[in-house]
Amino acid sequence: MRADHAQMLLGDRYRLISPLGQGGMGIVWRAHDNRLARDVAIKELRPTRHDDEIDVQTARRHALREARSAARLSHPAIVTVHDLLEEDGRLWIVMELVEALTLQATAWHLGRLPVHWTAWIGFHLLSGLRHAHAAGVLHRDIKPGNVLLTGERVVLSDFGIAVLQGEPITHTNSAPVVGSPGYIAPERLRGYPATQAADMWSFGATLYFSVEGRPPTIGGGDILAASPPEISRPPKRAGALRVLLEGLLQPDPVDRLTSDQAAMLLSEILRKEGIAVPPMRLMGSGLFPPGAFTK
Q: Are 218 and 230 in contact (CB under 8 A)?
């Protein structure tokens, strides 16, 4: 990480404080918005290199796509984008700062999450995902590391490879499939385009990890060769979530549960647990079961 950026002022407004994390698409910083007197998260987009030259134009297209995809969404289960800046030849996306653990870190720490916690997380995550799909946004990288848990909110983050439905994507048979191994729908590994059904498979794989403590596929497939994953492992600890997970992880998208069907199943599971939930079409946030992340 580039500590020399600390205290850098962007757009005469945002002062970088410290790096929060780093991924393949860039570095995320904690920063302070001097104008509104609040802390924010700022993602510094790092251009990739092609033939030893920095591909700034590609980085700019990716930044615009990510910012525009997320900015058209307004939902408590989706991270909010505030601004997009270009300064000193670098691109920066300004987002709300969500103080949270990822679902991945939480499940690793606990081994796995109880069924009713996973159902609660799934209900709110699906609410945000349905909102994105209704707006024509396909996330394409739903995984435990991109689900943030604050104790009061479930937040889907990182729209770095999101696309708008119908948007042309440069793709050839030799191009690698973008996404995270173990959480990419089988049809995408076979070269078919992203769809809402593919996002639903990734959603199911994420809930599988939450309740089982591991991804649903053996080996997770070869993302670079775009080969299909090996046979999925049936859930063993899913309890009331078993039907939902098996329905979401159907290899053929035609046979896969729709978001409406998944919403009804999750609502029924939570109702039987005595956990009241609002209609999914209206709400996407609420309190976790008492003490959910304090033990």
A: yes
Q: Which amino acid is at 280?
A: M
- CA pair distance 158, 139, nearest whole angstrom: 8
CB 223 within 8 A of CB 176: yes
> What is residue 252's predicted lDDT score, i.e. its pLDDT?
94
Q: Which of 15-19, 46-50, 110-114 has the lowest mean pLDDT?
A: 46-50
Active site includes 141?
Answer: yes
Delineate the domains of the chain, giving CATH numbers in brackets: 3-96 (3.30.200.20), 101-272 (1.10.510.10)
Distance between CA atoms of residues 140 and 167, nearest Å: 13
* CA separation, residue 51 to residues 4, 35, 54, 175 (Å): 27, 41, 8, 16
Burial class (CB in 10 A: 0-12, 13-18, 19+), 252: exposed
172-209 in b/e form (b: 16+ CB < 10 A) is: eeeeebbbbbbbbbbbbbeeeebbbbbbbbbbbbbbbb
Contact 19, 37 (CB under 8 A): no
Give the active site residue among 33, 83, 88, 141.
Answer: 141
Strands lying side by side in the sheet with 101-102? 101-102, 147-149, 154-156
Distance CA 213, CA 106 (A): 10
Between the alpha carbon of residue 230 and those of residues 216, 274, 276, the distances in Å are: 10, 37, 38
pLDDT-derived band at 53 (thresholds 50, 70, 90) equals low
**Three-state DSSP state, 131:** helix
